[in-house]
Amino acid sequence: MTARFEFELKATDGKARTGVISTPRGEIRTPAFMPVGTAATVKAMMPESVRATGADILLGNTYHLMLRPTAERIDRLGGLHKFMNWERPILTDSGGFQVMSLAGLRKLTEEGVTFKSHIDGSKHELTPERSMEIQRLLGSDIVMCFDECPALPADRDRIAESMRLSMRWAERSKAAFGDRPGHALFGIMQGGLEQDFREESAKALREIGFDGYAIGGLAVGEGQEAMFDCLDYAPDMLPVDKPRYLMGVGKPDDIVGAVKRGVDMMDCVLPSRSGRTGQAFTRRGVVNIKNARHADDPRPLDENCSCPACSNYSRAYLRHVFRSNEMISGMLLTWHNLQYFQDIMGEMRVAIAAGRFDAWEEEFHAMRAMGDIDPL
Ligand SMILES: [Zn+2]
């Protein structure tokens, strides 16, 4: 255990990388997938169950927590780790993205954003300084710079203006974050799908200097091909010796494609959200547990998965509890999905270390292309 935040790159295979981030709260093996604990909980999961899937770090949402129960209340109660009973590392986003996607009546100025809460309409302000304060009150281990992200498609002028504002905010975020040993501040690269703006943004961030670098402004509706095109060059613009985090990604094949292109960390609500709507991610692709074909099927969802849903229950049971709106349905499918996401991260770490990522990737796609096991 270290008292500092450090990243050690252990091996590379092509552009894919594997390493370890050390923090006072434990190690994060990369490439890492971070389950999302929006409201101080990964929905339908106990924290020890999230850990049992292999997760080293969770993501918390500043926007949600500042509105309810508030960062000040969480601080009084001992910080977010204690509040939600997760002692390992937590990364918090800056609130910027969710203000844009969830809040009503936003007003954007050089200073920051004022907005109305989507919960009760109350008025709030987020600035780089306030975002740093909230993330400090939460006790976040990895703090994200406050940024602005325009919805795509947007014209080049709008993307440039927004990116440059985010770079000024990155500088203010760094100043407000101060010197906090053991805690990390990540800068966020913006610039949409414009390579020259991505380069300008990366340069600005490198000059300020951060503990890690995120690639923002992707996975916002541009599609996988456009995202991969950007990831073909964007990670290369960031320092080799710092972790690279692709925000809000993604589906299993998005994740694999991002790792292949040099990304170290990712987060997404997909495994937990899909788990609550009867959708399971497996080695053989997506399985909709509500389908009638599972009604009499005594086989597990995925015979190669070690999670409780696959070890102890049949497809028939999983379909039954989903159709009956039983809580265990969301619990089991969320566990399975989080397990699957962590399993592919673990397999990729091993494959990269062994220098056989390409072979692993080929197998990954071949299994998915086969589709679900044949009905009985
Ligand atoms: Zn499973």
From TrEMBL:
Keywords: Glycosyltransferase, Metal-binding, Queuosine biosynthesis, Transferase, tRNA processing, Zinc. Belongs to the queuine tRNA-ribosyltransferase family. Residues 15-367 form the tRNA-guanine(15) transglycosylase-like domain. Its EC number is 2.4.2.29. The gene is tgt. This is Queuine tRNA-ribosyltransferase. Zn(2+) binds at C305, C307, C310, H336. Binds 1 zinc ion per subunit. Its cofactor is Zn(2+). The keyword Glycosyltransferase applies. Catalyzes the base-exchange of a guanine (G) residue with the queuine precursor 7-aminomethyl-7-deazaguanine (PreQ1) at position 34 (anticodon wobble position) in tRNAs with GU(N) anticodons (tRNA-Asp, -Asn, -His and -Tyr). Catalysis occurs through a double-displacement mechanism. The nucleophile active site attacks the C1' of nucleotide 34 to detach the guanine base from the RNA, forming a covalent enzyme-RNA intermediate. The proton acceptor active site deprotonates the incoming PreQ1, allowing a nucleophilic attack on the C1' of the ribose to form the product. NCBIfam families: Q_tRNA_tgt, tgt_general. It catalyses: 7-aminomethyl-7-carbaguanine + guanosine(34) in tRNA = 7-aminomethyl-7-carbaguanosine(34) in tRNA + guanine. Substrate binds at D93, S94, G95, G96, F97, D147, Q190, G217. Residues 248-254 are annotated as: RNA binding. It comes from Cognatishimia coralii.
